[in-house]
């Protein structure tokens, strides 16, 4: 006996994943009404779609600014998409504003892991390894890897937990936006200004 799929279930799944209504309904039907299982199905399905989108050119987009209350912190960001239609869309604009808020609040230094200089990674590895000196090499490696993950979630925008929803990373937030628009979206660059820093 299958669980009836309600409009509310479909809307909740759509809000959580950014997938289309029909995709959400199909996933819920396939998962027999189980929302967590439907999310897994959609992530698998959207993963291949996101990979295909990532190769497409992004020549349009938006430059947004954000000045935090009191004028002590400001952010300037460029986010690119494929078409002017998406760039003018209110959802896309809200997405870019949320990214500005994230940068103002969490102070990332880089967009993604590939931008972190090797010297900084070597320094973090050295610090982590020194803290656990004397332990077996396999244990040391696991601890160093864990500390590097923490380092990335501090300094890389993509790896940070989203300030408005701590259970999602910025990467999840970006993937949901890509799925919603059906276009490749790239966070091109940002600058964060802080008074006196």
How would you describe this protein?
- The chain is of the alpha+beta class and 197 residues long.
- It has three domains: 47 residues, Helicase, Ruva Protein, domain 3 (Orthogonal Bundle), CATH 1.10.8.10; 91 residues, Tetrahydropterin Synthase, Chain A (2-Layer Sandwich); 39 residues.
- The chain has a three-stranded antiparallel sheet.
- Helix 2 packs across helix 3, helix 5 runs antiparallel to helix 8 and helix 6 crosses helix 7.
- The mean pLDDT is 85.
SSE layout:
Layout: H1 7-17, H2 21-30, H3 35-53, E1 60-67, E2 73-81, H4 84-87, H5 90-106, H6 118-131, H7 137-155, E3 161-162, E4 165-169, H8 170-181, E5 186-194
Antiparallel strand pairs: 1-2, 2-5, 3-4
Structural class: alpha+beta
The number of helical elements comes to 8
Shape: globular
> How are the strands of the biggest sheet laid out side by side?
1-2-5
Pick out the low-confidence regions. Answer: none
The N- to C-terminal Cα distance equals 62 Å
CATH class of the largest domain: Alpha Beta
Number of E-state strands: 5
Helix content: 40-55%
What would the average pLDDT be, to the nearest integer?
85
Radius of gyration: 20 Å
**The CATH fourth-level homologous superfamily of the largest domain:** Elongation factor Ts, dimerisation domain
CATH architecture of the largest domain: 2-Layer Sandwich
* Topology pattern, helix = H, strand = E: HHHEEHHHHEEHE
Integer tally of domains: 3
Strand fraction = 15-25%
Let me know the largest β-sheet.
3 strands, antiparallel
CATH topology of the largest domain: Tetrahydropterin Synthase, Chain A
